[in-house]
From TrEMBL:
Belongs to the transglycosylase family. Rpf subfamily. Residues 175-223 form the LysM domain. Residues 132-141 have a biased composition (Polar residues). The keyword Oxidoreductase does not apply. It comes from the Bacteria. Keywords: Hydrolase, Signal. Residues 126-173 are annotated as: Disordered. It comes from Streptantibioticus cattleyicolor (strain ATCC 35852 / DSM 46488 / JCM 4925 / NBRC 14057 / NRRL 8057) (Streptomyces cattleya). This is Transglycosylase domain protein. Residues 146-155 have a biased composition (Low complexity). Coiled coil: none annotated. Residues 1-36 form the signal peptide.
Length: 224
């Protein structure tokens, strides 16, 4: 949401048949209000995400790297390439600096372990030093390994799902609002001033939304 990706935790985003689904780690967290978090908060998130291993080399085969488990696309989108080609090749401080940018872009919902910090909006800026060369030795070691087939580029820069997309067709519904990529129940409720917030929105659409943490573009939700 590697050792950090445990099946019991919430998935972040689902991609299937070329369609990206938007998921949230906690529906109460808005992706537009986050700003910063202290180093100690990021340490706790990393402990949950990767057992605190800032040099995590995708040991679980999930396509995510470093202490805060960046996918290559989210690492690039948040400016990580100025430090290293992958998160696990960057220093801890560099990873935190990139995480700060992703936090501003995506909000706490970009990490399924946001609750471990807790990672919330409006925290203090971390004291980090982004100088340094990161894990260059590890990068050279990995360079001699056979390359893995490139994964299809996701339509969103959030972390990819830890589980396969549902085999059954997604329920679309008949509501008046069509879910867009990047939406969450919390965001939709706030944007459309739904009385009762995301909980009410979830109750109104239980025939379509089976998990408050997982919605898909193209679903039609009732707002009232």
């Amino acid at each position: 949401m590697g050792k950090h990706r445990r099946a019991s935790k919430a998935v972040r985003i689902a991609t299937f048949a070329g369609v990206a689904g938007a998921a949230v780690a906690a529906p109460l967290l808005s992706a537009t209000s986050a700003s910063a978090a202290s180093v100690s908060v990021w340490d706790r998130v990393a402990q949950c995400e990767s057992s605190g291993n800032w040099s995590n080399h995708d040991t679980g085969g999930n396509g995510h790297y470093g202490g805060l488990q960046f996918s290559p696309s989210s690492w690039a989108a948040a400016g990580g390439l100025k430090y290293a080609s992958r998160a696990d090749y960057a220093t801890k401080d560099q990873q935190i600096a990139v995480a700060e940018q992703l936090l501003k872009m995506q909000g706490p919902g970009a990490w399924q372990c946001a609750y471990a910090g807790p990672l919330t909006s409006g925290g203090p800026a971390p004291a980090v030093d982004t100088a340094g060369s990161g894990n260059a030795a590890s990068a050279q070691t990995d360079a001699v390994k056979p390359a893995k087939p490139a994964a299809p580029a996701p339509t969103q820069h959030r972390h990819a799902p830890r589980h396969a997309a549902p085999a059954a067709p997604v329920q679309r519904g008949t509501g008046e609002y069509t879910v867009q990529a990047g939406d969450t129940l919390s965001k939709i409720a706030a944007d459309h001033q739904v009385a009762g917030g995301w909980q009410k929105l979830f109750d109104l659409n239980k025939d379509v939304v089976k998990d408050a943490n997982l919605i898909f573009p193209g679903q039609h939700l009732h707002l009232r």
